[in-house]
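quick one before i forget lol
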Amino acid sequence: MPARRAFLISATAALALSYALSFALAPAGPAAAQTGRPIPVVATFSILGDMVKRIGGEHVAVTTLVGPDGDTHVYRPTPADARAVSEAKILVVNGLQFEGWLDRLIDASDFRGVRVVATDGIEPIAFEEGGHDDHAGHAGHAGHAGHEGHGHDHGAFDPHAWQSVRNATVYAHNIAVALAKADPAKAGAFDRNRAAYLDRLEALDAEIDRIVAKLPAGRRTVVTSHDAFQYFGRRYGLTFIAPQGLSTESEASAKDVARLVRQIRAEGIRAVFVENITDSRLLTRIAEETGARIGGTLYPGALSGPDGPAPTYLDMMRHNAKTIAKALAP
């Protein structure tokens, strides 16, 4: 079995079982969503909103709380958000403590629908596994330049699981199952949309593999603003280092920055990357001190607007891979 097909099998098998259970447990008659109206769904941030739209199609009405170029780490919900959540049948969240404001919003909205945790079934990367202390510099791991002053920004695990395309198949599975339970009459449509989306994810995963494979071993260290790319690094064989921790709310200490500057100089790292959701001034200063150049803008946790380079999840992942490869190529 080709390796790139293997990662889809478990999600497909699990989906079939979940659909069978959903049909067995789904209420009949008026209790089920039989009206033909789109299912009102709230997604916490733009990546999830895009995935719900791809799988739900015309059968969902999606409200996204944190929109394009928005930073979910520091988001402050509004009264309009509370109203949207109160009217939603499904609330799709990332989980892994990514949305630190979520429980307060749910309490304020008196939400009575179904909360779907998109990362359910994913094996998360523990904070200590990501190279946050002495592991920085090992291929396939990520970390910030130091541990001082950061703490565990999101708890025990890295929440940025969407940065591996293989994990995105689990996101798609969880979303499809929830939509099928909410409207069993449309389960076939959701399943077809999910299958088509998985095909595109499979192709993208292979494409990113090919893009990164062209980089020699000595040009696989990526410097970004905050530590959001552990899953990308582990899946595609890159090392990510950053002055900030897992959350954009964390602040880089002078010791962290100095350590990062020394590492960039010692390893001859030629480019650093800013992010669409963070202030670029620190990375610009680091580039000036080390002689590295700004290699481009990466999208760690929010899509771009429709006219930008990353208006969908698929576009975002492809853009990140191409931007990194172009800047680090010999």
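fyi Confidence is low (pLDDT under 50) at residues 9-33, 130-154.
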